[in-house]
Every structure is written in structure tokens, then in C-alpha cells.
Amino acid sequence: MHSGKVVLGCRFPRIIKTTSPARCYAHPALCALLPVYHSSQSDNRRKKKKQQQQSSQPVRRARSNRGSKRRRREDSTVRLYRLMGEEDISNDSKSSCGCEDGTVEAPAAAAPKENGRAADPRLQAISDAIRVVPHFPKPGIMFNDITALLLRPAVFKDAVDMFVERYRGMRIAAVAGIEARGFIFGPAIALAIGAKFIPLRKPKKLPGEVISETYILEYGTDCLEMHVGATEPGERVVVVDDLVATGGTLCAAIKLLERAGADVVECACLIGLPKYKNFYKLNGKPVYILVESRK
Q1: Where in the sequence numbering do the catalytic residues fall?
Q2: 57 shares its domain with 111
């Protein structure tokens, strides 16, 4: 029996909750109806609760669907990044540069870009202006003759401009050119970006006090020299040459400048061999090339 009092005189018994023990002050017939009344009330509550559950169920289902869609989007994004990561890993190959202490790190797959930038229409004209002379200076050598490029002022200017566009704004204090053809591009680049030019020469070509760096060639050794005091400690320097093949000369230039305290930012070359295509590193320093050698 429900705890409370039954108030008579109303159409349906009204239960008033009380703290007193369970009592019912009513006619016995009315008391007999109370279980039926409570049963109907319980049924009504159950129906109402069920309706509320049914009305709230689509909302929960919609939220669940949104969550599953979000998870599917996240899973697809994860798969995309995973594929991109695998592609990056597959492109991270290494090969020897052929010099004493340097290594070349180059992407294995060819790409429609050079050195990470979109192909520039000036590159084709620069490549076409370089003459390839077979078997010079000895049999088996394909010599890249840049004098033909120098005879075309517009193309020569384009080559210099592309280097200037790269290094302007990089706080380059000095441009170091390697004898001999590094002297062709180095001074022009240095003047355009407001930097000084440092000549790196063969032995006994510079007067006064010099520092030198010896490096190993295929048959014997060679040496680069630089004036003492040509660069200050901490100065940012770019090394310029016309072509990179094995990288031995560039390795020696980097070591020579670093011994003087310079910070070598990058090496810049007009021509690179096909196996060194795109952006790669030489002895821990990036090497920037404009075109690759034609066969």
C-alpha cells in the first residue's frame, strides 16, 4: 500500500505524501481501488518513459553517425599521411659523391621540379646554350663548355639572375668562387646581392699569407688556397662553381672556409651530373644546381 493519505471527495483518489506510517483513511471499497490506480499510474509512467526513450533514440543515433563519419574522415586522413610518409621514406636514398669525406643525398625518383622549385622557362634556354664537347680534354670525357652561354648575354643574365633570386634576402656576407670558372658567376652574384667576393685559387696564385686545403683527385692530389682574413668568423658564405661532378673540389672549399670560421650556407653550381639531379647535400651542405649535364 502506498504511504500517505487518501483524500475523499475528488473523482480520483489523490495521494498526499507524509512522513507518518502508511495509513489509509477511506471507505474499504475505495481502498480496494488503490492497487488498480497505482498499477495504471505505473503503466503510464512506463509508457511515458518509453516514449521519451524512443524520441531521444534518433538523436543519439544521429550523434553516433556523426561520430562514425568523423572517425572515417580521420581514418582516411591518417591513411593519406601514412601514404605520404611512405613516399617520403621511399625517396630518401643515399649515394656516394666520390669525394674523400662527402656524401650525396638525392631523391631516387625523378620529379618535374629542379631543386624543389617549379620548372622555370629560363632553364631550357640555359641548358640549350651549354655546348657538350665529347672526348675533351681526353677520350671518354663529355666536356660542358659554358663559353657558348657567355656569348648570349640574355641567357647569361638569366643564369645569374636565377642565382641572385635565390640568395637575395638570405643575409649572405660573401660569395666564394672556385678557380677558374667559378670566377665567371661568383663576382656577378656577389655584386647583385651586396656581398664580397672571395677567390679560391690553385697553389701559388695568391700573394701574401694564405691558408690552404689539400684534397684527393682520381690520380693524385690538388689544393685550394685563400687569403688569410678574407672571411670573418660567423660570416654566411655561398660557394660557387660552374659544375659539380664528384664533389671533391667543393668539399675542399667547404673545409677551407670553415677552418677560417665561416658559415657555409650552400654550394651553387650551374651544371650538375644527372645522378645529382634535384636538391641534394654534399658533405652536409646543400648544393643548388640550375641544369643537368646533357649526354
Answers
A1: 181, 218
A2: no
State how far the Cα of 226 lies from the Cα of 176, in Å rounded to an integer: 10
Place of cell 651542405: 285
Q: DSSP secondary-structure letter at 4?
A: S
Report the C-alpha gap between 241 and 254 in whole angstroms.
12
User: Residue 119 sits in a domain of what CATH number?
Assistant: 3.40.50.2020
Expressed as residue numbers, the domain containing 203 is 93-292
Amino acid identity for residue 34 in this structure: L
pLDDT for 276 equals 55
Q: Mean pLDDT, the chain, as a whole number?
A: 74
Predicted local distance difference test score (pLDDT) of residue 277? 53
Domain count of the chain? Answer: 2
Considering the domain architecture, whether residues 139 and 245 belong to the same structural domain is answered as: yes
Q: Name the 3-class secondary structure at 204.
A: coil
Q: Are 20 and 4 in contact (CB under 8 A)?
A: no
Q: Does residue 106 sit in the same domain as residue 36?
A: no
**pLDDT, greater one: 68 or 262:** 262
CB 237 within 8 A of CB 263: yes
